[in-house]
């Protein structure tokens, strides 16, 4: 893996996070796992769970499935894809701890292949 | 790409300069014991550096929630108190604490306990507990085994958390609370060949993802959805999970009994029930069927639609979907406890599970095995290999509720009373005369009557109190906390154990004993308090912090100092005590358990056929008839209707339209957040940041009507009390209903009385009265109260930078 990670720099090249937001429950584990890993204070984040909803898709029926409510984790400018962890052979902390098992770390190529397999996924590449 | 993981690592190992200890988490901080897997990374100085999820845990598999991830921020929080303290009772409420040694603390306790017990009788002492902490379930042990008083007390009105359901389980099912089967007890989990993924999961009055209620690791519901399970939700409020449900029944709060009876109506009358199970294992089916179909007391789906305010077609669709699925399972929650009709709702719920043949089958509802009566195990072994198991045709001769509630047949006898304190003293338990089922089922005093005793001195004066690891005044574990505050101030002496100086302790206690977090002690976690055949886990000690001791160590120390017969000379450490009382379920001692960390119990399905639900090892259930009592002889013997019925919530606008005009909004409370466990974690900045202010959810239509905008502060009020919240305008609550967050206090605010860390500012429980219980003494209207709402001009928003400043610098 050493060749892909620039030695001595906290920068990943060609890597990303694949997130299945059909099943992201919005538990915010990724946010706190990241803050603990990088010792981020209140007000700073390496990843944020954006809240798309809840709003009613039509006015006819108000049961749950008629609500749009998607939780979408988005890496911020502070995300380094847990370079130190990855170098040590571990998953990024958000991926490791995700309670819904909806986050994957890998190369853009392999994650793009995964992306074709089901809808409601998003692939983030926080670092160029 | 393959990544390294720590599968197969020993319970303790070295990695990159850290000593890593694998453990099964439980309390403090509180949680309903799942036993999530943690790896605690301790540096060369012996300090907890960080935690990670342990991939070896068969259920959590490395996953963790925010509260465990932030464990170092909790353990080393600058506001944590790490040594015993005393304060003159006349300085209650003041910051006038004085540090003392454990020896001095124990000497004070001995002097006080001996004085009160000898002068007024041991019943003048009471131990108060809350929920979700190891010390909470040791409440009876501290009261009865150590101090020698019968008066242990979970202070929430009507024990409106779990016990209304548990009482229904004891009386109707004759078994432990039936939890959904998520393969937690099976090696290999979902891949175990014995396991079947449920076709349908019903989530009823529960939000398992943030709550992990009753040891159910909530996110397993998502695992099962990905494997094809379909969801039905019964909840007035939309939550993320209900948006992924096939059907959601948004019932009017407090009407669950009517809906459950309508499901019975459809399942029975459309012949969706399991005739074989009903014939062989149920009692009173005809009477039950007649009640469900009774023109007056029965509930048709049409009648339920009117009562519950849901579309009748959806009721039919949901009941049919559940009734036709094999297997199907139901996660039933706190909503059953937080109304006066909960025993009946629970009764109908257990009937639904039983008559559809979903009890103790793979992918259905699982229940724990009960211990065998003395000698029965060896007889079983001798007769193993094809011997016919005798079918029970009546009651077991012992005390069944004791077995079901405490998982042991122990040496309780009529003469011995609870924990050997004697029958005479046991009968003096506050509330025993009026609510014997409640008191005996949980070996506790009745909460509402305990409050009466504190306020009036009747039937006798309670003089010494022990607040055991609970922050009861914050809105979690009592109704009308302002009255409890007055009641506790009447105590002549009060001792408290906790991790932090809470409003309850700052207000009312005279002696503070610091307790250890789960990272600091050797202890045992039992998933679902051992009620489900899931897991027994080792809590492995990794660090020492200050002078804190474990709940069990305090129990054992005091048992020895006070000469308590069941402890003195028998134990020297808390670990020995929990080894004998908890690790034993895994068939090993605490050290052996510590090595394996997680022990899966095996599900051993259909225990009723194998004699494993009764101490006498006869086939059947532990009820008066040996069967699932659709007609409950136990309810009948206690003066309750043996069959389910519906009753309207006491404070609903339908029940009292005149009052309804004054307090037009239905008030529900208690929904969980990821950030907090009830009143805990408000002083952990990285968690508080996720939910800085107490929220009141209000529908956009109502908000417009009363002139409230999103984020504005409001005051809710009724004839019992008032509280302030920040409005979150959202369609997830229906017009006419508001939801208030519970558990709030503000560690950043002034701690001294009268402010007490702002405990009265946003205290939703002050709007909930005592003594609105069921006939058997259970339940309280925490989820079906009503109130009025007034917009405020003031802004009480928390200052997160000040909170970070105050609590963000850890003390290591």
Descriptive terms for the model:
heterodimer, A: 128 residues, alpha+beta, 3-stranded antiparallel β-sheet, two-stranded antiparallel ribbon, 22% helix, B: 812 residues, alpha/beta, 7-stranded mixed β-sheet
Brief sketch in words of this structure:
The complex is a heterodimer of chains A (128) and B (812). Chain A has four helices and five strands; from the N terminus they run βαββααβαβ.
Structure notes:
The complex is a heterodimer of chains A (128) and B (812). Chain A is globular and about 50 Å long. The longest helix of chain A is centred in the N-terminal third of the chain and has 10 residues, at 29-38. Chain A has four helices and five strands. Chain A is α+β, with helices and mostly antiparallel strands and 128 residues long. Helix content of chain A is 22%, strand content 27%. Chain A has a three-stranded antiparallel beta sheet with strand order 4-1-5. Chain A has a two-stranded antiparallel ribbon with strand order 2-3. The radius of gyration of chain B is 25 Å and the shape is globular. The longest helix of chain B is centred in the N-terminal third of the chain and has 19 residues, at 102-120. In chain B, helix 20 links the parallel strand 17 and strand 18. Chain B has 812 residues and is an alpha/beta fold. In chain B, the strands form seven sheets. In chain B, strands 6-5-18-17-16-7-8 form a seven-stranded mixed beta sheet. Chain B has a six-stranded mixed barrel with strand order 23-27-24-26-25-28. Chain B has a four-stranded antiparallel beta sheet with strand order 1-2-3-4. At the A-B interface, helix 1, strand 2, strand 3 and helix 3 of A face strand 4, helix 7, strand 12, helix 27 and helix 29 of B.
